[in-house]
Amino acid sequence: MGEWRPLSGPSRQVALEILRDGPLSRAELSRRVGLSPGSLTRLTKPMVESGLLVEVDAGPTDARVGRPSQPLDLDPGAHHFVGIKLTGDTAIGVLTTLRAEVIASAERPLTDPTPSVVAELVLELTDDLAVQVPGRTPITGLGVSLGGRVANQSEVRWGPYLNWVDVPFGEILATHTSVPIVIANDLTSLTEATHWFGAGRNSDRFVLLTIGAGVGYGLVVHDRTVDSPDVTIGLIGHHPLIPDGPRCDRGHHGCALSLLTVSAIIEQVSTALGRAVDYDEALELAAKGDPQASVVINRAGRALGKLIAASANFTMPDLVVLGGEGVRLAEVAHDELLAALHADRHPSAAELPMVLQPADFSEWARGAAVVAIQTFVLGSE
Fold first, then answer.
1. Which of 99, 140, 200, 218 could form a disulfide with 194 if both were Cys (CB 3.0 to 4.6 A apart)?
2. pLDDT (tens digit, 9 = 90+) per residue, 49-95?
3. Beta strands 102-109 and 90-97: pairing type?
4. According to CATH, where is 1.10.10.10 located in the chain?
5. What's the CATH superfamily of 79-192+363-378?
6. Where are the alpha helices (DSSP H) in 34-105?
7. Is the model's pLDDT at 1 over the cut of 90?
8. Angle between helices 262-273 and 279-287 (to 10 degrees)
9. DSSP 277-346
10. Per residue in 262-289, is it b (16+ CB within 10 Å) or e — as a string?
11. Where in the chain is the domain with CATH 3.30.420.40?
């Protein structure tokens, strides 16, 4: 597997501060990393000479006080990364800068879940994206995310959507490329992307809830993602929400999986209407006031409001971010969601800011790229 060569010591801290919050003045950098101005200048000089850091215009200057120190920023085009999200039937890829800005995207159907076949598909998709790097410089890293449990950023211990058990997917990929690779759980990756470069960037404590093929929960506390093997098995999916709700495959009545997943909503609306509908049509019908679709969608909205309230009551976040391909439910059933949220929160509780991510699988692929960016900057932690 290709070798990651992360920065270390104060250089790493400087790069990380600028990556997430730049441009920053040298005075602000000195304060953040605890270095004298002279030491900071000596440290950053080779980083500027290498092109990793750049000096940027500080704006208009008053000639009476002399030329100010130019703020330092990071050149996001100095490195590029590919992130690929694997579902049960599709590989979605993005090409990003060092600051996770998406500059190209592509996807391929995944018709054979055999690990070697999927690896070939991932590498083909990576090549398709890599040729779009400005100047055709090599990509710095590849991140691949999927639902399930991942160990050592390389081995898929359990991948339910691909029916994988103990698949050394990182090693399989590494036999065919010298690009450094990191394999990660998709929810963890999306949480990290939200944390470093998304809606949670300036939040010390936030919750990410996703609805789609499953129901996911990510948590950042004290500016760090809470990690555990249990994060990857979707425990929140079986949280009880509506006692007389539909039953999930494990026999739970009214749990999150039975009410909020895309497949559950499609099935319930299709049954109510006596004909097959897809997710978008189910939401459109409810938005237009169809009585049968509205029963299902409004109940799901109440369930989502109760799930948000439960997560907020237990973790007291500054922010709740809603994501996943099913997130439009929060817009269509907005009133029901808020009613249930407020019913399950104390009247004196702080107002809970909520942000919706785009309902786009490329957000998950971007999360895979972010894990590769983090590994490049921080190393394997």
1. 200
2. 777 788 887 654 444 444 456 888 888 888 999 999 999 999 999 99
3. antiparallel
4. 9-74
5. ATPase, nucleotide binding domain (3.30.420.40)
6. 37-49
7. no
8. 60
9. --HHHHHHHHHTT-HHHHHHHHHHHHHHHHHHHHHHHHH--SEEEEESTTTTHHHHTHHHHHHHHHHTS-
10. bebbbbbbbebbeeebebebbbebbeee
11. 79-192+363-378, 202-356
d(CA 241, CA 153): 34
As a whole number of angstroms, the distance between CA 182 and CA 20 comes to 21
Report the predicted TM-score, pTM, of the whole model to 2 decimal places: 0.89
Q: 187: closest CA among 152, 138, 222, 148?
A: 148
Select 202-356's CATH number: 3.30.420.40, 3.40.720.10, 3.40.50.12780, 3.40.50.970: 3.30.420.40
- Say how far apart CA 333 and CA 326 lie, in whole Å: 12
Question: What would you measure as the largest C-alpha separation in the chain, in angstroms?
Answer: 78
Closest-CA residue to 354 (of 334, 326, 370): 334
Question: How far is residue 69's CA from residue 59's CA, in Å, rounded to a whole number?
Answer: 11
Compute the Cα dihedral for 212, 157, 175, 191 and give only its sign.
Answer: positive
Q: Percent of the chain having pLDDT more than 70?
A: 94
Q: What's the pLDDT tens digit per position in 231-289?
A: 777 788 889 999 988 988 888 889 999 999 999 999 999 999 999 999 999 999 999 99
Pairing of strands 354-356, 319-323: parallel
> Quick one: fold of 9-74?
Arc Repressor Mutant, subunit A (1.10.10)
One-letter amino acid for residue 84 of the chain: I
